[in-house]
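Section 3.1 - Work completed
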Amino acid sequence: MFGKGRFLGGVEVFRNNFALSLEFTSCHDNSLWVLTNIYGPCDAEGKQNFMDWFGNVRMSDDMCWLVVGDFNLLRKPKDRNWPGLAKILLQGRKFTWTNKQHPPLLERLDWFFTSSA
């Protein structure tokens, strides 16, 4: 991914049933950051396995980290229990999923977080 007109170089650093993480290097200043894309399971057992895994993920405080994806979970700000991540607010709409029925059921299942770094 390096070369003329390129801004980032990246490599896969982690993959499991819930997530794919890529480490990117800026071609501008050689800074490193990690992008983790989440796809959370829909069934109760899978959700519990996901939460057990996600609750034990550790990233150093100085790592630039962006976590995005379909968590398949409803979440309230008061329920936040992971102070190392800051929620990135959704702009322009309140919901990320619909059942496409009339009247539609609308839910916020996709979330975006970043490290304090």
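Second construct:
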Amino acid sequence: MFVRIMIIAAVILFFVLWVRAAVDVYRRGDLNGGQKAAWILLMLIIPFIGLLIYVMIRPSDAQVAKQARR
């Protein structure tokens, strides 16, 4: 029973993180439409690894704001 609850919690956590990353990709102004579609597809095709790569490579909000001011 405990293992089942942990698996369900992990799946829900992953889904929440994936949706948050997808929304973040959609809202980013420094990416064009093709780049946004590529990130979303990458996260759909290889979900865990794609999400992990996006989170690791994604610039911080401060970096994005600094680029927008230029």
